Amino acid sequence: MIDSHCHLDHEPLYENLVKVLINSKKVGIEKILTISTSNQSYKNVKKIIKFDPIIYGSIGIHPHETENDSMNVDFIFDEFKNNKKIIGVGETGLDYYYENSNKKKQIESFKTHIEASIKCNCPIIVHSRSAENDTLKILSEYSSFNPKILMHCFTGSKKFAYKLIELNCFFSASGIITFKNSKDLQETFEAIPSENILIETDSPFLAPIPMRGKKNEPSFIHFTLDHLAKIKKIDKNLMDSITTSNFNKLFFDNVS
């Protein structure tokens, strides 16, 4: 199993990193991708990825942080080029639900991150909430460059998913797919081809059933995997193999 998106720099994960890793390896996790959300977060990510060989990191500014924080293409490219364990750009994208940052700055930052990911030839990790039209419009503007796109913690509509599949997007399933009120999302993941799906915890947020109410951690990924296998009506070991292969194909250009 691979946790394709978590925030190990957030508490209580960071102060319990040794235990978090022990728990992760105990359930069979072979890689963890910890995600940058700001310049300070990225500094922490660079420290965390040195902690254990299974931990990798990303570089980027979350849409919530774009009001007061930024990175340019050259900075992202230089950091990516000089650190083999930084394997993705993001978390970037658009969040019009909370709109903690104004839309113009979110859009500018999103485009900068897309351009950086194209220059780095690495995946862009996209957050999209209440912003389907603009997310699709902006990603489509760069379609001629064939960007590698991962829709993190995907909760969008089936129509949105179909449009994104045309852009060869990957979709990450989080613990939300285990929630009782997520029938529409479960149907959407049933429709998304298995070769386009990854899994994530987004920990310490969004703990899956039966761990709801607790702080999430990477080791809880197996609950999401089990539920995804039921949605796709395939054996969970096969689902594990498929999602692991998809991650390695997207981030490492191989299927090991």
Task: Give a summary of the structure in a few sentences.
The protein is 40% helix and 16% strand. With 256 residues, the protein is α/β, with parallel strands linked by helices. β6, α6 (158-165) and β7 (170-173) form a beta-alpha-beta unit.
Describe this structure in words.
The structure is a single chain. The chain has nine helices and eight strands. The chain has one domain: TIM Barrel (Alpha-Beta Barrel). The model has no long low-confidence stretch (mean pLDDT 96). The radius of gyration is 17 Å and the shape is globular. The longest helix has 18 residues. The chain has an eight-stranded parallel β-sheet. The protein is an alpha/beta fold. α6 links the parallel β6 and β7. 40% of the residues lie in helices and 16% in strands.
Shape: globular
Q: Residue ranges: pLDDT <50 for 5 or more in a row?
A: none
Percent of sequence in beta strands: 15-25%
Cα-to-Cα separation, first versus last residue: 12 Å
Discrete helix count: 9
| CATH topology term | TIM Barrel
The CATH class assignment is Alpha Beta
Major sheet characteristics: 8 strands, parallel
The string of secondary-structure elements, in order, is EHEHEHEHEHEHEHEHH
Structural class: alpha/beta
Named CATH architecture: Alpha-Beta Barrel
CATH superfamily: Metal-dependent hydrolases
